[in-house]
Amino acid sequence: MWVDCDPGHDDAFALYLALHGTAERARVLVGASATHGNASAGKTTVNALRALAWIGARASRDGGEEGGRGTRDARRVAFAAGAERPLLRASSACEEIHGESGLDSASATDALEEYAWGEDERDWMGAGGIEALFHPRAKTAAEAMYDAFVRHVETSGRGRPFVVVATGPLTNVATMILAKRSQIDLFPDECRPVIFCMGGAVGDGNTGARAEFNIQCDPEAAKIVFESGLRVYMIPLEVTHTAIVTPSVLDSLTTGGHFDSGKAGASAHAKQIRSLLTFFKDTYENVFDFKTGPPLHDPCAVWAAINFIEGATYDESETDDRFRDLFEFTHERVDVECESRLTYGQTVIDRWGTSAEPKNVYVARSMNVDRFWEAMRDAIQHRLSWMS
């Protein structure tokens, strides 16, 4: 799995679940990248590195590969900076939700630590530090994503799909498709990248009357991805708005297990989780009038992707039943509005089959919320097990 993100509070927890949330605790997160979105690309890049360090991972150029076909260090993930702006329009940000840094906390004392630039990073980034990730000669997110895909196919063959989970605007994913389309087409269908995105809405949007933020940030990129011919899964607002961090959910995420056993570092970790999600709760109440808690959007897409990876078959049916009782998906024609002043960024879903265009996106209709929170709790407990 490769996670392309714009941290963002919920993006941080998406990375958390990607690293720690598999059923057998098998390594699936091979890389991550950052894009513009919730904050500027410079801020989201730093935030992604902060989040990876917080969850016990360490970013590197190649994710800890040893000789191409060797084993990987389970705590190292490949990392690259990505697009600083959308394909055609000016960039926007979401400070009213995620704060000035993009990853603000309710308490400064419990904020995530600043990214520590050590000797590993000096060898990787050179003397330029994090700014080197944006150097014209640096490997871009699109290039790193594609290289990870090729390595995966070479080492895994057709055994397991390579999944890209986009939890921000789709600029990096669209750029990869545009740049590597002819190469991707050389692979059999079952080997090509599978795209999961948190974004879009069936009905009302959240930053426009009909537009959801991630899609509205770069509708042209979303259109390219949706019409790419790759297998695409969309987790819309209607589903992510069922994953509400209520007070009881927050308590369940930060108590029990290692939290109650006196595990070193567990108490501080719980405070960080609470501080992040309390800030998120307060902004969601102020902006969207969510009274019971904020929706934890992005981990929903990661959880769907994990269940896809762990599925046994490559099902081409209208409703992909590999997700068992965890998700319901329907196969739809989804177009992205790229011209209208009123509905720019809307995901237009042809629910009644009136379009002559082929169905192109699997749209999530529901999610087993109890099982989702169980997965998040298990992931957090697994992270605590890594602490000394």
TrEMBL record:
<keyword id="KW-0378">Hydrolase</keyword>
<dbReference type="GO" id="GO:0008477">
    <property type="term" value="F:purine nucleosidase activity"/>
</dbReference>
<dbReference type="Pfam" id="PF01156">
    <property type="entry name" value="IU_nuc_hydro"/>
</dbReference>
<dbReference type="InterPro" id="IPR036452">
    <property type="entry name" value="Ribo_hydro-like"/>
</dbReference>
<keyword id="KW-0326">Glycosidase</keyword>
<dbReference type="GO" id="GO:0006152">
    <property type="term" value="P:purine nucleoside catabolic process"/>
</dbReference>
<feature type="domain" description="Inosine/uridine-preferring nucleoside hydrolase">
    <location>
        <begin position="1"/>
        <end position="374"/>
    </location>
</feature>
<protein>
    <recommendedName>
        <fullName>Inosine/uridine-preferring nucleoside hydrolase domain-containing protein</fullName>
    </recommendedName>
</protein>
<comment type="similarity">
    <text>Belongs to the IUNH family.</text>
</comment>
<dbReference type="InterPro" id="IPR001910">
    <property type="entry name" value="Inosine/uridine_hydrolase_dom"/>
</dbReference>
<dbReference type="GO" id="GO:0005829">
    <property type="term" value="C:cytosol"/>
</dbReference>
<dbReference type="InterPro" id="IPR023186">
    <property type="entry name" value="IUNH"/>
</dbReference>
